[in-house]
Design brief:
The protein is mostly helical. It has four helices and four strands; from the N terminus they run H-E-H-H-E-H-E-E. The longest helix has 13 residues, at 2-14. The chain is globular and about 40 Å long. The structure holds a DNA duplex.
DNA sequence: GTTGTGACATTAT
DNA sequence: CATAATGCCACAA
């Protein structure tokens, strides 16, 4: 069951369109496991490199990068996000004028 | 078995 | 804005 859950999470993450973002909690909900945001984080950490998951599109609540500022992964994620046209300022994705982050968040139909 | 830690979230203070 | 308290669950010691 545990391994299945990881696959579901991976597939959910893969489905995030380029240039859009999602949150850990949001992914968990979309994967049918509300309240299990931490599991999403674990799934990403445990993900094989071969999957080429767009893990950089997964952010913490409020569009904040979940890594410690200055860490290697932090810089890497910011770099990749900027490569997709998103603006990253002080560890968070800057939404241009949008009232809520939900406007940038990936909303599955 | 228990405990502490962690790519988290939400609510309350 | 920042902390703290909970809830959540996988994993390592």
């Amino acid at each position: 069951m545990r391994a299945e859950a990881l696959e579901i999470i991976w597939r959910t993450v893969v489905a995030i369109p380029r240039g859009e973002i999602a949150t850990y909690g949001g992914i968990a909900r979309r994967a049918g496991m509300p309240g299990r945001a931490r599991l999403v984080g674990h799934a990403l950490k445990a993900a094989p490199a071969g999957l080429e998951l767009p893990w950089h599109r997964v952010l913490g609540a409020g569009g904040r990068i979940a890594f410690p500022k200055g860490s290697r992964l932090y810089a890497e994620q910011a770099r990749r996000l900027r490569a997709e046209g998103l603006e990253v300022v002080d560890g968070r994705v800057r939404n241009s004028g949008a009232p809520d982050l939900d406007m940038l968040l990936w909303k599955p139909q």
